[in-house]
C-alpha cells in the first residue's frame, strides 16, 4: 500500500493557500515517500505558499532526508495583478510586487515542518546551475510558459539519481482553456521521448516518471 499523510499533515495541507488539489496531493505524497527511501533530498520547483511543500516535507521527515523548494516568490505570469490566478493578499504593499515568501514561512511554521525544508529563493535555472548533488525526486510545478517549464526540466532532471522520480504537475494532453497552457505536457512528452524515463502513474494532471536510464 502506498504511504498516506497523517490527519494533522492533511489538515495543514488543506488549510494552506495554493493550487494543489487533494487527490493529486495524495499521489504526490505517495511518490515522495517512495523516492525518499533512496536517502537523497527531494526537490520542488514552485513553492508558492507552501501547500505542496508540506507533503514533500513530511515524507522527507519520515525518511530522514531534506526537502528543497525553489521559487523567486514573485509569482508566475498568470498570478500577477489583473490575471486569473491573482490573489491580492500575496502582494507586498511596500514593494508593490507579489511576495509569497512570508505566507510560505507561516504555512511551514503552522505545519511544524520548518526544520525539514530548505527554501531556495531565486530563479529556478540559476539555482539549478549551481546545484551539485544527486536528488531522489524532482517535482516540476513552476512557471507554465515553454521557456520556464523547459528550463526547469533541463536544469533539474539531470540531477535525478537513477531510480529517482520526476513529477510534473499541470499536464493537460487536451487544451482546456486559455490559461492552463500545455508546456508541462510538452515537457512530459519530452521526458518520455528521451528514453531516460518510464511512466509510473498519472493522477489527474500529475505525472510520475522514474529515471531508468541516461540521455536526458
Ligand atoms: N506548488 C504550489 C504552486 C506553485 S505555483 C502549490 O502547491 O500551491 C508556481 C510558482 O512557481 C509561483 O510561486 C512562481 O513564483 C514560481 N515560479 C515561476 N517561474 C519560476 C522560475 N523561473 N523560477 C522560480 N520560481 C518560479
Ligand atoms: Mg501546479
Automatic annotation (TrEMBL):
It comes from Streptomyces sp. NBC_00119. Keywords: Methyltransferase, Transferase. GO terms for biological process: DIM/DIP cell wall layer assembly; methylation. InterPro entries: SAM-dependent_MTases_sf. SUPFAM superfamilies: S-adenosyl-L-methionine-dependent methyltransferases. GO terms for cellular component: plasma membrane. Gene3D superfamilies: Vaccinia Virus protein VP39 (3.40.50.150). GO terms for molecular function: methyltransferase activity. The keyword Transferase applies. This is Class I SAM-dependent methyltransferase.
